Amino acid sequence: MEDILRSLGFLCLGSRLKRIGEQLQADTQRVLDGLDVRIQSSQYPLLAALDRLGALPVGELAQSLGVAQPGVTRAVSLLTELGLVEVSPSNDDQRRRIVSLSANGQRLVDTAKRDVWPRIEDAVADLCADLSGPLLGQLATIEDRLAATPLARRSEKAGAVAAKAVAR
Amino acid sequence: MEDILRSLGFLCLGSRLKRIGEQLQADTQRVLDGLDVRIQSSQYPLLAALDRLGALPVGELAQSLGVAQPGVTRAVSLLTELGLVEVSPSNDDQRRRIVSLSANGQRLVDTAKRDVWPRIEDAVADLCADLSGPLLGQLATIEDRLAATPLARRSEKAGAVAAKAVAR
DNA sequence: CCATGTTATATATCAAGTTATCGTTTATCA
DNA sequence: TGATAAACGATAACTTGATATATAACATGG
To answer: Domain HTH marR-type, which positions (chains A, B) (predicted)?
Structure first.
């Protein structure tokens, strides 16, 4: 069965990037499910931004994540309900609402940084290893590799390697 | 303002690909709006698939587009209402519903192939010209270029070049 | 100093993808 | 051949992005 997006090349690059991104996110979610982590993979960038940049108002958070502000507002309410972030008013500007990690959120991030993110990063790096040449070719290779060996399998391998490294 | 997805590298590649894809599609939509075409850019792959592969049942259409079947079912109902595709029962299997371009749909595709798609393809090709090196670097370059010169401007340039070529 | 404009966030609605599940129809095999 | 399994497409519910707009707080010029 011909892959139309692939055949259309640059014409549908946007759709194709979205498609690959969605598959990667779904696969990442499967890795997380296997690791007993209960939040959505899509929330990690927000938590990582707060961890890396410290407390931020909604708008700057949106900018640093490269998404539109309403998306951040929604994600923040969700994470607030989960008790992972907290919102406090700004002292000097009552319009601004400063978002920060809660104690629980910080704990989750610390754990993830140690136990989870390296696994995922290794798996994706493995997926993208030794790519070269034009962009469309690299994307095709990624799709092919993803179909041949799902990310979860790559993360097991990465985990095994990591465990071996620790055991040494 | 630090771009977190970029800093996180492979860890959030999925989110990042989605983000770039969405921006590309939104930009493409803007080009289409300027060209007096009234359908969503995201519907073009489906129409292109039917044009290229001929009439197909829903499931095979989904497979050739690389999306899940319910998405195709919804897109087909939408395009049927717009009068661009038609659905007919299969002779030999009552479960299958064969999707094909209507006369209007075929006309639209023919026009698009001649007047619209080349513009978009040139603009995106321009965006991706002379990329080299590792994937993450290529993606960063694409984002930078897109921020510097939006796709619509690139398509104007491409249109001018095409017009000049014709005039010769 | 207040009317007006701007900025920050929230809300509403839309778009396009997903998974899960259901009803039909077809296929299989004991 | 008839019971059961598999395949196809539709529907429902959810996710995660978008845009447009409303509301409230701040800034500023006359």
So the answer is: 10-148
Q: What is the pTM of this model?
A: 0.86
Q: Which domains does chain A have, with CATH numbers?
A: 12-163 (1.10.10.10)
* Residue of chain A with shortest Cα separation from B59: A1
- As given in the structure block, the two tokens for residue A70 are 């309403």
Helix B151-167 vs helix B13-34: crossing angle, to nearest 10? 50
Question: Please, which residues have CB within 8 angstroms of residue B25's CB and are 6 or more apart in sequence?
Answer: A14, A15, A18, B41, B42
Alpha-carbon gap: B49 to the closest alpha carbon of chain A (Å): 6
Q: How far is it, in rounded angstroms, from Cα A125 to Cα A146? A: 12
Candidate from B11, B42, B135 with C-beta closest to A15: B42
Q: Which of A10, A11, A45 is the closest to B4 by Cβ?
A: A45
Determine whether the interchain pair A4/B53 forms a contact, defined as Cβ–Cβ distance below 8 Å.
Answer: yes
Tens digit of pLDDT for each residue in A93-107? 999 999 999 999 999
Mean pLDDT of A39-50: 90
* Nearest residue in A to B48, CA atom: A4
**B168 pLDDT exceeds 50?**
no
